[in-house]
């Protein structure tokens, strides 16, 4: 099985004891009652410790990446699960390969993930499409084969996007990736992590820039996706371009601007819960609880939540809980 992953950050969160049926749609309540055969809070927890059909209330580990948007999503998952009576640990690492491996091993029960990015990563090749229906249809059999179960995708989507300084864009008249590619005379260095150079991990980073736009990425700075250190290097002129997401709320304040994906090559990166199959089978309520977020969370909401953390300097945990309370998904 190998050694456990070493997280960048781990937070143990005590359970909030409350009826796990509150906030679920009626169909979900009926399904839980039928499966559980009694009190929805009776029985064990997730991670394969609970018997088939048991309710919530056990231990759950939420994993994922460390950048702002994922920290907010992890906090929302934790708050939803705590409100349903689970004892939640949040653990985050920098690289998808690390936290995906932890999920596959069962060291992590659930991840908030980007549908297209995770589908392509697990498949080892691009299988995602520009629409979420096509992406999920391609993703589901790959996930099942690897012992994972997918939740309902939210409307909220954060697609890969590439940024330059506003000064460069204005001076050179470069507003699209096609124009940026045409302006380059050789390879460029980009503010991005090492995985950007690996097409099996990030087919829509360096690989797609070269194939669709003729932009050759000759090297990366090693800064994480959407990181403030990477943005600062672009803002300071150390490198000409960086990668972030379309919901990044900090770019304008740093004098940065997104370039248009004018060839429309970036796939549908809606947020979706990805759950270890043993955890999901041991406790059906786990996925039911997380699926409450799907019809509520929008792309605009996600951008606003990011801004509260990055610009107003609020904690992801506080921002996430306030949002869920406002939407009626957890108790205040």
From TrEMBL:
Species of provenance: Pseudokineococcus lusitanus
Organism placement in taxonomy: Bacteria, Bacillati, Actinomycetota, Actinomycetes, Kineosporiales
Cellular component GO terms held in the UniProt record: ATP-binding cassette (ABC) transporter complex
Ranges of residues in domain ABC-type glycine betaine transport system substrate-binding: 59-324
Name used for this protein in its record: Osmoprotectant transport system substrate-binding protein
One term of GO molecular function: transmembrane transporter activity
InterPro entries: ABC_Gly_betaine_transp_sub-bd
């Amino acid at each position: 099985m190998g050694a456990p992953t070493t997280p960048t950050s781990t937070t143990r969160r005590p359970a909030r004891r409350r009826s796990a049926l509150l906030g679920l749609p009626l169909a979900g309540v009926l399904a839980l009652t039928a499966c559980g055969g009694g009190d929805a809070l009776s029985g064990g927890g997730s991670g394969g410790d609970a018997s088939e059909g048991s309710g919530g209330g056990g231990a759950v580990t939420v994993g994922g990446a460390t950048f702002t948007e994922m920290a907010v999503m992890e906090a929302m998952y934790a708050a939803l699960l705590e409100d349903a009576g689970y004892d939640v640990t949040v653990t985050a690492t920098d690289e998808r390969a690390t936290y995906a491996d932890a999920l596959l091993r069962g060291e992590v029960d659930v991840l908030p993930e980007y549908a297209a990015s995770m589908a392509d990563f697990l498949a080892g090749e691009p299988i995602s499409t520009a629409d979420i229906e096509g992406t999920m249809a391609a993703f589901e059999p790959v996930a099942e084969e690897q012992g994972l179960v997918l939740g309902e995708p939210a409307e909220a989507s954060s697609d890969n996007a590439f940024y330059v300084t506003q000064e460069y864009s204005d001076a050179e008249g470069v507003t699209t990736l096609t124009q940026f590619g045409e302006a380059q005379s050789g390879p460029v260095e980009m503010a991005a992590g090492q995985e950007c150079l690996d097409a099996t991990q990030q087919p829509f980073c360096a690989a797609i820039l070269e194939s669709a736009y003729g932009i050759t990425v000759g090297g990366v700075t090693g800064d994480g996706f959407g990181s403030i250190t990477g943005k600062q290097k672009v803002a300071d002129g150390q490198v000409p371009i960086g990668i972030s997401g379309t919901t990044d709320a900090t770019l304008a304040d740093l004098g940065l601007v997104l370039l248009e994906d004018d060839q429309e090559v970036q796939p549908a990166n809606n947020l979706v819960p990805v759950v270890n199959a043993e955890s999901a089978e041991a406790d059906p309520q786990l996925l039911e609880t997380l699926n409450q977020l799907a019809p509520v969370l929008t792309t605009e909401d996600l951008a606003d939540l990011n801004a509260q953390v990055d610009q107003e300097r609020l904690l992801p945990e506080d921002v996430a809980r306030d949002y869920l309370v406002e939407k009626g998904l957890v108790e205040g």
